[in-house]
Structures are given as C-alpha cells and as structure tokens.
TrEMBL record:
GO cellular component: cytoplasm; TORC1 complex
Name of the protein: Uncharacterized protein
Organism encoding this protein: Geranomyces variabilis
Ranges in coiled-coil conformation: none
GO BP annotations listed: cellular response to amino acid stimulus; cellular response to starvation; positive regulation of cell growth; regulation of autophagy; TOR signaling
GO MF annotation: an example: protein-macromolecule adaptor activity
Amino acid sequence: MDFAPGRSITAFDVHPVAPVFACGNESGIRIADGHGTLLATTRYGEGFLAQRMGSINCVAFHPHRLAVAATSSLSPWISIYTLNSEAGSGGGGGGGIGGGAGGVV
C-alpha cells in the first residue's frame, strides 16, 4: 500500500477483530488487509458543499463493525466511514469508503 512519495502517515489503527488496518495522512484514509492489499480509500466530493478533510489526525475502528472514525486538521467534525463490500451499497460502491459527518468535537 503506497502513499505518494514524501508523505508520511499521520494516523494508524488496527481493527481489534478483522485482519485490516487504516492509515491516514494529508491525502486521505486507506484501509488495507493484513497482507497490505488496499481494500478501500476515501473519496472526497467536489464542489461548494463537499466535505474537506485536510490532514488526518486520528483514525479509530469500531470494535465490532468495519467502520472507522476519523478527525482531521480542517474539520471540527468526527467523520464515520463504513467499508462497502458490495457495489451500490451506499457511499461510493464496492471498494470505497462511504461516510458522512458524525458529530462536533
């Protein structure tokens, strides 16, 4: 799993049950399996009302579900993302991370 050259990981978490981990940096969040195979990435929208994350400060998995919470430098929100395993299952289709704002920090 690669980030762009010269970019460091600013957040990391391992799921307590599933063999997956999440990494975050200024380019977004990536989730991979135990072999390093990329499973999903965040997809930022475009336009005036699109969510802006900035550099990811923290990622944390839900203890029982394939969901990750994230905070960032540009947002006062905690965003919750779920790993979509089926195309059309909301938030961006297969291989993506669907999500939205959770609550104010």
